[in-house]
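On clarity, I found the account of how folds are encoded harder to follow than it need be. Since the whole study asks how a given chain folds, the encoding of that fold should be made plain. The format is easy to grasp once an entry is in front of the reader. For illustration, here is how one protein appears when written out as sequence plus structure tokens.
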Amino acid sequence: INKTIAKWQKIKPDWCIYQDADEFITISEFLSLRQFIEIRDRMGYNVINQIRVPFFPTGEEDFSQGDPRKVFKYYNRKLELITDRSERIFKYCDDMDLLSSGAHFVKRPDKRVSMEDWNNPILHYSLRQNCEKKVRKICARLPEEECARGWHVHQRELVKLGKFRWDKSLLCDISRPDDPLNKFYPGRNSVIDLRKLIGDGKFRTDGSDMRSFVALLAGLVIASNAQLVFEIGTGFLNSAKSFLYGLEITGGKLVSCDPEKRWGNFSHSQFEFIQKKSGEVAKNWKDKVDILLIDGAHDYTSAKDDFENFYPFVKSKGHIVFHDTNFPQHFGCEEFAREVNGLNKMVFAQQPGLTIFQKD
């Protein structure tokens, strides 16, 4: 620690990162680490405090994979004895103190801390192959003065608990698509190519096509942390794939209904297709919906019926999205959308048009 601080004192960096070899600092996939730090700097913070998520062995690990993020998949969100926080990213100043906490926390004058949530955690892999023997050996030689300062807590607690192999049924599995940390799992492979969808739709102005709005739909899912999206009118899966890209991040599900199936072979673990009209589906529907997309038959009566069938199931603060609200051939959607009153509304007028309402 002292050697690293001595280097910083020579070069005077703006910000510093000090992490252990068994830690991975993870940031929302929409930002680079540099962008993340610059944003916190502009917000006036000089220390970033992150949740440190511990991963545990269950006896099923395949160490041939090498990358510990693939080897260890199981973690516990609630184990307070071992789960902790660390301040691994901080703005440099000459009189800061790292040594007293083993470089886990920063002491400095005028400390302003950004307390990060589970969206920007540190993934911690303190246990390796033959972990029980190694941990006991490590703990036996831990310097007493370091333990007195509060260092090495996670190792000593493991010995105290006597747990070196954990029951995976009691833990969270980061490899599951619906796990909240799955976006940080290196083995995660999205089946949705959002860049291709955006590329196909970026400059389209011909006809009633959803591809101009795919990034907006994916972003709406992520921003609202949607868990259930209901889509009326499946078409050729452009909106469905947009929603699914976001749902892969939130862990939610898409249900889509259409009396016609106009797409070929496609399957996704978070996608359910019902080949019926919305009115038929609504008769037996019970679940609350975060986002409702109305993109079925585009005449006035059909748009009105779709809205009335599923509006009662939309959650408070949920969103209702109408497609084709600025497309002359489908004027019925625009006509009905204009009649919807009393809700917050955002209109995207570029053809073919999109209107988003938010329920009170």
